[in-house]
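During the reporting period the student researcher (J.K.) took over the structure-prediction task from the postdoctoral fellow and processed the backlog of single-chain submissions. One of the processed entries is reproduced below for the supervisory committee.
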Amino acid sequence: MKSVVQVTDAIKNIKDLEDFQLAQKATLTGIIMAIIKAEPTDSLVSPVRTMAVDALSYLSKLKPFYSTEESIQLAAKVERGLLPAVVQGRGLTGTPLWASSRITRPVLRLRNEPLSGVTVNSSPFQVMSDPILHQKKLLKRAVLMLEKGAEQEDEVLRVLSLRALGNMALGAPRKVRQYRKLLLEKCLSSLRGPSVSTSVTSEGLEVLAKVLVELREGDLGSAFNAISEQCRAFFDNESKLLRLKAFILFGKLAQVVRISKKHFFKQEVKKAWVPLMLHCQDPCSDAAQACVATLFQCVHFWGWRALESSADHSDATAPKEMAGFQMTLCSILTQKKPAVLYNFLLETMTYVKSNLSRIRIAACNLAGIIMKQMSAHYLKKLDFPALRNSLQELQLDSDPGVWRAALETLNILDTCSQQRLLASPEGIA
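J.K. obtained the following structure tokens:
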């Protein structure tokens, strides 16, 4: 083991790792794996195991590189060997499992996986997706350990504990209902507070999406409301990853709704509708596609068949297709819910100040569509000078697409202003 440590230290001191080739890499990898396998499993973070996994993670950076499949297989072998220690929840000298980032970080490096990566089956905590825990009646002990891990300040361990809890949906899906209170509580706590990191929040959103698949409306109780409200709060987040996860989760929530939460979720859909329509043009293509899918999963909550049949949402991320759907929606709202359409315009105009240029463009386009469809009664309520000022400010935008969209909407606004004057007694006179 001493020679392995010396090699690891030498690797760490190499400045250009990717340009260095180690001829005996395969042999050294085999030796390290044998060392890891020989370690007793009653301690998760033994000094030897920690050094060996660390050495393996640094070795992966040298040529000839491990293939993606080889890296995953190596990490999986390490993780399987850690299963007994994870279940016992012990680390070095009885240190609890959640204090063991010394072993989890190297395994993540071996997988070449960022902390906020989308992949869910990573780290030693992948074992929660293994049915063996349920078969050997070890699940309860593992869950209690991970519950404490999800409460820790260490970001890596909190993320991995949440991820492992979510993997219960893979390894023991029938047990999700039994532990739903714990799962929902830990996930919701990861979405709250300014001090919670993006990685932790992202994991919480993803775990909720997995857990919801195994639950029914009645299983959620008051957590349903909290999930929906917290989820909507991330629609406009600066992190594209959080936006993506939030759109996916909202869509999963829509699928859970039955009778008791239908009225509540209808109101949530109404509150979410403008950001959902705008983020169908999200600059992150994955977030845009997830948003489109969620938008059309929620269409039926309006209760209008004409709206449901109006869109071919396979290409709804394209501006023309989305514009067609928006025109149909606004036409229906003008007839059935004109006050809602008016409020949609006011909300849409707040997005012309978005940090994302694609969203500013989408907001201008949607505002123009709404103005065209708005009834004369509600046109009179508009503050035309304020709207004009907001759109004129966009003429100075650094993105040509923004000022072109703003100019087009300004022309629509001027046309609407003239129609308002003609419709007024003063205009007729």
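The committee noted the following: Residues 86-100, 113-125 have pLDDT under 50 and may be disordered.
J.K. will present the remaining backlog at the next meeting.
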